[in-house]
């Protein structure tokens, strides 16, 4: 996004709020929701907003996500028929999940190798520059 954490967090919360709004219109009673969120000073308000509409709300951090990354996922299950009133804003637990490789672990490689891309860019904007370098 912008690279400015506060601005990115604000835009992301706007997106997840709209996603919740759409989900509430199209999902069935008992339905689920999952969305990407950024952990920040207002995350507990977002979690509280979802708790008004879902029986179970969890904040999950995949193992494959870097530890220093603020990204995580909000998982909601059991959509209520009607919104609950005035759910208290509380701190929440971030639950580690997944069985993918830990992105922060250092792994020993048997040998170094470079893999070529599966497909080349169709019309890259830097093509003229590459052609000129190859011609020299």
From TrEMBL:
InterPro entries: RNA_methyltr_RlmE, RNA_MeTrfase_FtsJ_dom, SAM-dependent_MTases_sf. It comes from the Eukaryota. Residues 1-79 form the Ribosomal RNA methyltransferase FtsJ domain. The keyword Cytoplasm does not apply. GO terms for cellular component: cytoplasm. One of its GO terms (molecular function) is tRNA methyltransferase activity. Keywords: Methyltransferase, S-adenosyl-L-methionine, Transferase. It holds the Pfam family FtsJ. GO terms for biological process: cytoplasmic translation; tRNA methylation. This is tRNA methyltransferase. It comes from Vairimorpha necatrix. The lineage of its organism: Eukaryota, Fungi, Fungi incertae sedis, Microsporidia, Nosematidae.
